[in-house]
Every structure is written in C-alpha cells, then in structure tokens.
C-alpha cells in the first residue's frame, strides 16, 4: 500500500525537497496566472523537471500549448509518468530532452517563457543560449520570467549542478545582447513563496521582454 507514495516522494526529490513540492507547485501556477497567463497562451517551461509546476499548467492550458525542456533524460521520464498519473496525456504537451539549448527549435512562438529555479544551476553560456532562444521565440507582447540568486556569495552544488550567485549587471548585459529588456518583479517572499529558507525566499524574480515592446 505504501509503494505508490514512496515512488511519489522519490520523484518529488528529483527537483527539490519533497516537503516543499506542493508549495512550489502552487506558487508557480498562482504566480503565472496572476501575471497574465491565459488558457489560450502557449507556455515554454525551461527546466520542467518532473512537471512539478508543469502538471497544473498543462491542465489549465489548451491542448498542445505547453512546451517543457529538461536536460536530464531520467528526470523527464519521471515527468512523463507524472503526466500519465494525472491523466493529462490528452493535452498533448511537448516534452523535450535537450542538454544544449542549441538543439531546440520552437516551431510556434510562445506567449510566456518560464524558468523556475533553474538559471542559477546553469553555466553562463547556457543562460546566454536560453536567453537567445527566448528572444527569438517570444510573441510580440510576450514575457519571460525567471528567479535568480543576486549577489556575490560562495557557490554551492545541488544534485551535481552548481548553485550560482550572479550580479544584476550580468543578467542585464546578457539580456541586452539579445535585445531583451529586464526588470525586477520582486523577491520571492514578497510574491508568496514561503520555503523556510531565507536564501530561497530572497531570490529575485526577473521579467524579460523584447526591446521592440519598450523602444
């Protein structure tokens, strides 16, 4: 009787502390829907993992309107199981395994791109490449939201990935190189994220828009 629950906990642990799974899933959905995500929008979820945030988005959006990219094949396989368990295969999400953003080509522009707790696990060149993908793939009037660690701290590690702290100027410079304008939306704790971890709750949510929208 306990095996399904055990498998669920193991799956949750692939993308963070299992006890924060539900909070982080709810936060993602409530943040994007309160910032304009509509059912007819197309959403790009960078670092979709096991679909912790993806499942409510897939359920909410029209069929075929969710695109998730994940670098770890085994993690994305667990995401497909999560999709099956939720009975949402009929929504036809596009789930892409790609460790290199250069491997990804978006066939249809997206209205909102989302990278929750992933940019600070990426080397500089991968962040740069994803900003390029977003810049070329956003619709006019579209947005890209991503939370980041701002500041100068000792770098750590999580499940083999680095945990990087970077400056505001780093992200602003990369954004400008792809003709993206950048602004801050607020600290996660100000936006409803309650993890019990000061460093997590103090992360900054950034918003990127195509410069043609603001020139």
Helices and strands, in order, run as HHEHEHEEHEEEHEHE
Mean pLDDT over all positions: 87
State the major sheet.
Answer: 7 strands, mixed
Helix coverage percent:
25-40%
Write down the domain tally.
1
Number of strand elements: 9
Major sheet strand order? 3-2-1-4-5-9-8
Which structural class do the helices and strands define?
alpha/beta
Count helical runs. Answer: 7
Low-confidence parts lasting 5 or more residues at pLDDT below 50?
A: 1-7, 11-16
General description of the model:
The structure is a single chain. This protein is α/β, with parallel strands linked by helices and 215 residues long. The chain has one domain: Vaccinia Virus protein VP39 (Rossmann fold), CATH 3.40.50. It has seven helices and nine strands. Strand 1 (43-46), helix 3 and strand 2 (66-70) form a beta-alpha-beta unit. The longest helix is centred in the N-terminal third of the chain and has 14 residues, at 21-34.
Give the structure's gist in a few sentences:
It is built from 7 helices and 9 strands, in the order ααβαβαββαβββαβαβ. The protein is α/β, with parallel strands linked by helices and 215 residues long.
Essential attributes:
single chain, 215 residues, alpha/beta, Rossmann fold, two-stranded antiparallel sheet, 7 helices, 9 strands, globular, disordered N terminus
